[in-house]
Write a structure and sequence with these properties.
heterodimer, A: about 250 residues, alpha/beta, 6-stranded mixed sheet, 10 strands, globular, B: 4-stranded mixed sheet, 12 helices
Chain lengths: ~250, ~375
Amino acid sequence: MTESQAKIEAKDLNIGYGDFVLLKDANFQINEHDIFIIMGGSGCGKSSMLRVLTGLVKPLSGKVFVDGVDFTSASVKTKNKIMQGNGILYQSGALFSSMTLAENIALPMQLYTEYSSSQIKELASLKLALVGLAGFEDYYPSEISGGMKKRAGLARALALDPEIVYFDEPSAGLDPVSSKLLDDLILDINQTLGTTIVIVTHELSSIFAVGNNSIFLDGETKSILARGNPNELLKNPPNEKVLQFLTRGEGKNA
Amino acid sequence: MKKIKFDIEKDNLILSINGDILLYDDNENKQKLYNAAQNDKITKIVIDATQLQQWDSSLVAIIFELAKIALKRNIKPEKINFPVGLDRLINLALSVDRKPAQILENKKTFLEYVGDWGVSVYNGFNKGTDFLKQSWQALKRLLSGKSVMRGIDLSFALEDCGYKAIPIVTLISFMVGLILAFVGAVQLKTFGAQIYVASLVTIGMTRIMGAIMTGIIMAGRTGASYAATIGTMQVNEEVDALKTMGINPVDFLVLPRMLALTVTMPILTMWADFMGMLGGGFVGVTMLGIPMQKYWDMSVSAITMDNFLVGIFHGLVFGIVTAICGCYYGVHCGRNADSVGLATTKAVVASIVWMIVMTGIITVACEVIGI
């Protein structure tokens, strides 16, 4: 571990593509058991930040540490090991369309555990039940709704009992009730399993409902404009942009 | 009365809008209006909408253009009896304060185009060799028992490019044999040598035509399907999901497909050879009057092990080429629907081009070693 007790630590991150820089000198840390929100307006680099944190894209410069291990320049073997300790819920669910829900969830277990096939089957059913999809084991992703796909994606993300779960815009495309149910599920996972959760979103209701720490990214200055508990940021906004964002442009505290 | 009428009085531009302005398309009048507003002498713009009745976006676009010119020249247009909705739309359009993150360069010089092309060819070459290396490493992992490739994926791929491809290979190869026989017969008939149609078709099909036809069919059928399937997985973030689970997409997606096509292509080529001979036989027996037994004997005597093996080798190489092209363009597909279409097209074109290139290389190699 580094000197801090951070689960994830970003140091001097510069994120972009080619010559185009999206974010400069981003420094922040995510503590164990946090529900950490990465927020900001459209196009500010939230999803790119997530892709860097999850190792899908290399930053232009800077490093990401996971449990004190340099994830950015780790060997493929180390990187894969760290990745197996992560679960990710993608915006679309990203379920493998040629597999049933149970097969989707079983895949990481088949590859990385010594469980027998009957144990894997049981565990897959349990994970589906945890996200409210008991009985949907033999359904294909094309046969379920968008909200159910996200839940199934979450069940797959939880397959290997990860220490960190990343969420990319979890509320996108969901009706308010499904969105609220997903927020409750995130809270349950965090509280019961102690999982560290990182969420990229600009959905205010979710931000205030689940987040206990956050950073606010600004596309114009290409920097982190604010950090802290979102509810505290709403009470004491450090600048006008954050206030505008957290109050849907109304400019006064709710 | 003109619907959109403007007059210049001293340094004032007075615009009168009359009646219904719906789908307004008098471009000449619009251009004259914009030119007048840009005239340095103009210091005031008045827009009188007293007579305006119904309006649509065509009017909003005109006023928006005018407002932009006025804004550039620091003139605040004076609006008379302006509809509230129209005013709000103009303000909304003018209020957008976001700037594009990147300035798109749309004008390039010839040299820049050539330079860009050179860079893209170089990058493409690097990506291609890198993909070949990754595929080779994936194969080595499989042989050393460290691959994450699933047997079930291989069996699905074998099924897809194996017996499911037989009907189309059968039909096309039969027709090609038939055409070869017809074309050959026209010439051979003049010498009374129709019987040699059997040799012509047999040598043609076994040496190269069977493999080429199977290759082209499989490039269009299976190579395209590989590019589209993996490309769609890229769009749906399924490939990202694999990567973040620590699963190598080449092991998981590419290897089973590559193995399946490498195994099935030589078998399909053999089948195509047989069907082509059958097609030729159909013409020979029914149209040229060659007895079936005689045709069969001529065909069998024309088969040589060299020709047969060269044909099968072609099939093997075409299988590898088709699988590599299909999977490569799928893995390097962009993240939208257009990219999937583009990846599919490129996969088929590249497969066929590389098949022809490989045929040339094999033919020269065979010539050199005397096969």
